[in-house]
Write a structure and sequence with these properties.
The chain is an alpha+beta fold and about 425 residues long. It has 16 helices and 17 strands. The strands form three sheets. Strands 1, 5, 6, 7, 8, 9, 10, 11 and 12 form a nine-stranded mixed β-sheet that branches. Strands 14-13-15-16-17 form a five-stranded mixed β-sheet, sandwiched between helices. Strands 2-4-3 form a three-stranded antiparallel β-sheet. Helix 1 packs across helix 5, helix 5 packs across helix 11 and helix 7 packs antiparallel against helix 8. The radius of gyration is 27 Å and the shape is elongated. Bound molecules: histidyl-adenosine monophosphate.
Length: about 425
């Protein structure tokens, strides 16, 4: 019998594992320096936690099961509902603002394609308990801080910022009813990815007139710099505070020096149903979104907690990994092994000394390896190179030589003197 990995699920051979660790280390480093604390949640949750307000699209992509007790469960497709559940359960005991991050492994039964798999890691940054747009700015700043950390310039990746309530006011003015709203938003979210006729058909289906559909298209296409003044002039009722939020967001992000990475874009409404305010996606030209998020002020209440301001985003490792690899942005050393010493018996009768040195090096916390097979020095040096070792230690009867493999530089010393260098 022959087994393959399940469709869309991922094997991580050591080479892929190095890229995964490079990404996860950078996510954690950037989270911590921006003042976020780490949390995690279970892999399995009640099915309903994800169907209650995540939206149609994600509900269709759940890996769900019934356990032996007949309970309906699902593997987490995202962590935001779990976060809301956890915070709601302890809301009075948690000091605010809650600034938390997580690096969960998630599953969605999507059609596997470039940038989308059925299993992925997702960096989550969230601020809970803050109503003001300052919290949205904090999340966006952290997102940009990461983009800069891994070497993306504002020309490589833009954070495209929209406002769900502004677009909802616009849709309402064009006759979209409360019942049709989620479908209309889903159509707008899909607009850049589907043919114009399919988009128009989705809006016609919820009863929109052709003139309204083209009016909305024009409005959404407003260039970034003109969006805030244009919405302000359009006299959209009920969206005054949201326009003010966009202005304030721009002021804060300008003061923090990351305005170059930001573009306002009303196409961004997000596919998930729980967003209530500012929404954004990090996008590299021609690629699926690298990250997405926004404000979701009602989710805590929906999962049984009090009303509480909440905002954040998620970034997956798949599009990010492709972009980093294809643009050569991963520092060379990160994809090689991280071995410090490869110890070689350079003369017959020194193998026991090799074992002794390896054991002592490991005991001092240095990474050290040796070849299981007794073979010539040349072969062992090749092996040291293949393993990405920084130094080869060539052991002879009278002493040893430490060779730096990158430069070929070699220093000779006694075994005792070498071990002493480990102590400093
Ligand atoms: P999302 O837009 O569904 O948002 O996912 C965010 C990011 O996760 C995407 O931009 C993408 O990088 C990655 N992603 C999503 N699905 C897949 C997939 N099938 N394969 C690979 N990568 C994928 C959320 O999940 C929200 N819960 C984010 C959030 C946190 N909002 C507020 N806080």
């Amino acid at each position: 019998m022959k087994f393959n990995a399940v469709k869309g699920m991922r094997d991580f051979y050591p080479e892929e594992m190095r890229l995964r660790n490079y990404i996860l280390d950078a996510w954690r480093r950037v989270s911590l320096r921006n003042g976020f604390e780490e949390y995690d949640a279970p892999i399995l949750e009640s099915l309903e936690l994800f169907t209650v307000k995540s939206g149609e699209e994600i509900a269709e992509q759940l890996f769900s099961l019934t356990d032996r007790g007949g309970r309906n469960l699902a593997i987490r497709p995202e962590i935001t509902p779990s976060l809301a559940r956890m915070v709601a359960a302890k809301i009075n005991a948690l000091p605010r603002p809650i600034k938390w991050f997580s690096l969960p492994r998630l599953c969605r039964a999507e059609r596997p394609q470039r940038g989308r798999l059925r299993e992925f890691f997702q960096w989550n940054i969230d601020v809970i308990g803050v109503e003001s747009v300052q919290a949205d700015a904090e999340c966006i700043f952290t997102l940009v801080d990461f983009l800069r950390e891994v070497g993306f310039s504002p020309d490589d990746v833009k954070v495209r910022v929209g406002s769900r309530p502004v677009v909802m006011s616009l849709l309402k003015r064009e006759g979209v009813t409360e019942e049709g709203m989620d479908k209309a938003l889903l159509a707008l979210d899909k607009r850049p990815k589907i043919p114009a006729e399919a988009f128009e058909a989705m809006l016609r289906e919820i009863g929109m007139a052709d003139s309204s559909i083209s009016g909305i298209g024009d409005f959404l296409d407003t260039p970034s710099d003109e969006i805030v003044p244009r919405i302000a002039q359009s006299g959209l009722s009920g969206a005054e505070k949201d326009i003010e939020d966009l202005r304030e967001l721009e002021t804060v992000l300008t003061a923090m020096g990351v305005k170059d990475y930001i573009a306002f874009d009303l196409h961004i409404v997000r596919g998930l149903a729980y967003y209530t305010g500012v929404v954004y996606e990090a996008i590299a030209e021609g690629e699926r979104a690298l990250a997405g998020g926004g404000r979701y002020d009602n989710l805590l209440e929906i999962v049984g907690g009090p009303a509480c301001g909440a905002t954040g985003f998620g970034m997956g490792d798949v599009v990010l990994g492709l972009l980093l690899t294809e643009t050569g942005k991963i520092p060379a050393g990160c994809l090689k092994g991280t071995l410090e010493y490869f110890v070689i018996d350079a003369e017959d009768g020194t193998f026991e000394t090799v074992l002794e040195i390896v054991s002592k090096l490991r005991g001092k916390g240095a990474s050290a390896e040796y070849g299981f097979k007794r073979q010539g020095v040349g072969r062992q040096l090749k092996e040291a190179d293949r393993r990405g070792a920084k130094h080869a230690v060539l052991v002879q009867k009278g002493g040893l030589a430490v060779k730096t493999l990158a430069t070929g530089e070699q220093t000779e010393m006694s075994v005792a003197a070498f071990m002493k260098t480990m102590e400093s």
